[in-house]
Amino acid sequence: MIRLETVTPDNWRINLNVSDDQKEYVLDRVGMLARAYAYRDSRSQVFYIYDDDVPVGMAMYCDADEWETYEFSQLFIDQRYQRRGYGIKAMELILEKMKEDGKFDKVELCYIEGDEAAKSLYEKLGFYPNGRSWDDEIGMEKMLR
Questions:
Q1: What count of other Cβ atoms lies within 10 Å of the Cβ of residue 65?
Q2: Do the beta carbons of residue 55 and residue 11 sit within 8 Å?
């Protein structure tokens, strides 16, 4: 069973890694924790993704008050556990958390141009291009309600 567990002072050292060919597209564990700290005033949320008792990945989102949206910032599945459906299941759980929180009706994210796996995942979940871009990052969004 896929579940999310909030990163805490007791579990933050779990060692998960992205593959070398993905390092240009996604932050590693330490980078994600640093980003979460930087965005702590925006209610950053960082989760480990578990399959039963096995940690298989990480994800992060925060509030983007200026755009009245959640900003889904990062997702990675450890290189040992990819292509098993964990990414889509984890995203579904995170989108449910956002709906339950209820602060915003929309979530935005971006992926780096060339990361076809991320683009495909987000499209499967109903995200669509929103016309925003930053350097090589392409923006997408989805309404939660």
A1: 13
A2: no
Note the pTM of the prediction, 2 decimals.
0.91
Q: Which tens digit of pLDDT belongs to each residue from 94-117?
A: 999 999 999 999 999 999 998 888
User: Please, which pLDDT band fits residue 21 given cuts at 50, 70 and 90?
Assistant: confident
CATH homologous superfamily for the domain 2-143 = Gcn5-related N-acetyltransferase (GNAT) (3.40.630.30)
Contact between 60 and 73 (Cβ < 8 Å)? yes
Give me the residue spans of the domains in the chain: 2-143
What is the average pLDDT value for the chain, to the nearest integer?
93
Tokens of 80: 């040992």
Task: Return the sign of the alpha-carbon dihedral for residues 116, 141, 138, 93.
Answer: negative
How many Å apart are CA 36 and CA 34, to the nearest integer? 5
Q: Tell me if 63 sits within 8 A of 103, measured CB to CB.
A: yes
